[in-house]
Design a protein that fits this description.
Layout lengths: L1 H6 L14 H7 L14 H9 L13 H11 L18 E3 L7 E6 L2 E10 L5 E5 L7 E5 L4 E6 L24
Antiparallel strand pairs: 1-6, 2-3, 2-6, 3-4, 4-5
Helix pairs in contact: 2-4, 3-4
């Protein structure tokens, strides 16, 4: 699916999408990483907790969307919130009034929040998010814009021009924890 989505990367105005931020290229490496059901735990997810200085978490059942975002940022040389809560990203970086390719989107959900990287929009206007712990895996899912509580961008990185690629093929998110 992501290969198909990647081939479609075009902004809404028809121009080619800009080069991908380093953190987004890092995030794409982890597509299809999944939790391991049962007593074992995915070592890659446990490493993400260590990457954000939360090595005391030793399972892949603890909601890990913020660990994914944080680990990806840290690996790209950008300091994350180093916190396990998705909503911690509402105070990180600089706020954006509209999404741009590669920005962080923070969402509301029953029981907490969710966080991931915006990679486009679908024909229905949903934002497409590359994130962790989306149905227990790293993947791209569509989210209604009404669930977004904020868009953020790294403070020391120039913000790209507005506009998102329209992509097709991402299912609407049904579960983020």
């Amino acid at each position: 699916m992501i290969g198909q989505l990647t081939r479609q990367l075009r902004r809404e105005d028809g121009a080619r999408a800009p080069a991908e931020p380093a953190w987004l290229a890092e995030a794409r490496k982890w597509i299809d990483l999944s939790e391991i059901k049962g007593a074992q735990h995915a070592p890659e997810i446990l490493q993400m907790w260590r990457d954000i200085k939360r090595g005391g978490i030793r399972d892949d059942e603890t909601p890990w969307c913020a660990a994914f975002v944080g680990a990806v940022l840290e690996r790209a040389g950008i300091r994350s919130t180093r916190f396990e809560g998705a909503r911690s990203y509402l105070d990180w970086g600089v706020p954006l009034s509209a999404p741009v390719h590669g920005c962080i989107a923070v969402f509301s959900r029953d029981g907490g929040g969710h966080v991931g990287f915006v990679v486009g929009r679908d024909a229905a206007g949903n934002v497409l998010v590359l994130g962790g712990n989306q149905s227990d895996a790293v993947n791209v899912r569509a989210f209604p814009v009404g669930r977004v509580t904020g868009y953020r961008w790294p403070a020391d990185v120039p913000v790209p021009a507005a506009g998102l690629a329209q992509l097709d093929g991402a299912p609407v998110s049904e579960r983020e924890a």
